[in-house]
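Pilot study result, target chain (482 residues):
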Amino acid sequence: MDVSEKLLRSYATIDTDDDGRIWSWELLNTLGRAGIMPDDPRVRAALDGVRDAAGRPAITPYAQPVQLDLDTFAEVARHEVIQRALTGDLAVPADEFAAFAQAVERIHNDLLDERSGETADYIPTLRDADPEKFGIAICTADGQVFSIGDTAAEFSVQSTSKPFNYAIALEQLGPEEVHRWVGQEQSGGPFNDPLLSLGADGRPHNPMINAGAIGTLALVDAGKDLSARFTTVRDTWAAMTGERPQLHGATFLAERETGFGNVMFANALARNGKLYGASPTDRRAPEDATELYTMGCSLTMTADSLVKAGATLANGGVAPLSGRQVFSEETAARVLSMMGHSGMYNDSGQFSNEVGLPAKSGVSGNVLMVVPSKRMAVVVFSPRLDAVGNSVRGVEVCKRLVNEFGLHPYRSMGAERGRAAGQLTGALNGADRRAEAASAADRALGGLARPGSGGAGVAQTTGTERAGTATLRRPSQPGQQL
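Predicted structure:
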């Protein structure tokens, strides 16, 4: 079946009353169940300027729904993301994505009463964070999204900045040069252990511990002033997420005032000749390296924004919404490998055993996990931490998703793989599961306008997108079944 035929069948499926027209909100709901939301800038770009047979815009500022005939539908479906959603060619098929969203919703509800752990207490902004906050967000390489809970709550990204700082350094200097200055092995200790952070050759063990992260950022835009280097970091986040993160001033100042250990690491690197661009007598270089690292940790994120950065790694370095190649495939692969063995503080080995997927955590309570086999990222935000600094709920969410969907890469081979696939197929085909999944998607879609309703509309915007190649032909008779 070619693309045109698939799109015609999709149109006929949406046209439930068989009158040759569909409501704009019906199209948006269909996209939403596949994880492509109405506020997606690619959807807004596809609908911007499109008019129905009466000359009315497909999406109006007042969210008044209109009906689309086949010609108008064909114009919208020329846009790649719309076409792929309607023809079942997304990173995660719509039914599977809906089942995953349903599981996320169920796990979130199950863990609401989980209150073990404590917030980080070494600076006021972490200590005073609301421990009840709890949100889970998912995003695929194609920008399919689902979220539940406090995913719009802001937090400082903290150590989850480290994989992306490493990626910037790899892009600028390449792996050989980067690893002349920063190692690639597990440290064998906590992220801030003064005895285990540096190897016998004076290099930090890896970019995921504090000493390694400071050494990594010393490589970024070396020789430029601090403000230009920080702009590079922020610009990279904006390229991945579509949003420019802000520096949280109170967090930055508190981190800087209490960061004696980080200053010690930077000075040790400079003393050993392992701080890029610094001479043993250059007092400013260790200070700048520590300052830039602290600024990166103090950037404000939400789960909804951070998960798009994770999806960039899951997509071989391509940002899910813009299609921009932020990092090379090689860089994305190296970053995920590093996260896989050193991303979860001093529980990295145990996490690898139980979950088996690349992840990174921050002491603000965020956990980012990437599922390469599904080209998907998951972010959990919940401030209560376990003894090593990982979010209690965050780790549990990762475990449950991996176990429920057979995502552990080493536990899904042979007979176990077949069994897991059979269980997933059964779950996806169950009518009750699919109905619940659709309900979860509808709840995520929120205020879509239906005839006679006053729900919030999709704001108009401008944008470009590569047009698809499918061409639709009108059925020989109005309302013909396709």
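One observation from the pilot: The first helix runs from residue 3 to 14. A full batch analysis is planned for the follow-on phase.
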